[in-house]
Amino acid sequence: MRYVVCVVLLCCLAFSSIWAYRVNYETRDVVKNLKSLKAQISSEEEKLIMLEGEWAYLNRPERLSLLAERFFSYLRLMPMSAENFAEVDVIKFYKSSETIKSKYKPILDKAHKQSGDQR
């Protein structure tokens, strides 16, 4: 009987040591992947900051006005004046009950109606 108990305990010990070994190395892999992802996120954030700076530099008003003047005839732009803007009263606002006639079928309305029917 002692022999059977010792064998069972030895098997349990072997099983638990194999399980602990596996969990240990899985945890190490997860930590390694986490560090890699954090480094990748940091790199992407640095690139994003650089791109935002470049975007701000390229969209400076004085630069854009110089480009607009330089390529005015090529782009056939209209000169800026108050006549280029409409009054708010001229713009027609649709009420939510009114539908705009279009040659395209409203996909979102159709999907919304289908999801409303399923409730």
Task: Give structural attributes.
119 residues, mainly alpha, 4 helices, elongated
What's the short version?
With 119 residues, this protein is mainly α. The protein has a domain at 7-87.
Structural class: mainly alpha
Q: What's the oligomerization state?
A: single chain
Uncertain residue ranges: none
- The proportion of strand residues reads under 5%
What would you say this structure looks like, in words?
The chain is mainly alpha-helical and 119 residues long. The chain has a domain of 81 residues. 70% of the residues lie in helices and 0% in strands. The chain has four helices and no strands. The radius of gyration is 34 Å and the shape is elongated. The protein starts with a helix and ends with a helix. The model has no long low-confidence stretch (mean pLDDT 83).
Secondary-structure topology with pairs:
Blueprint: H1 2-58, H2 61-70, H3 72-75, H4 107-118
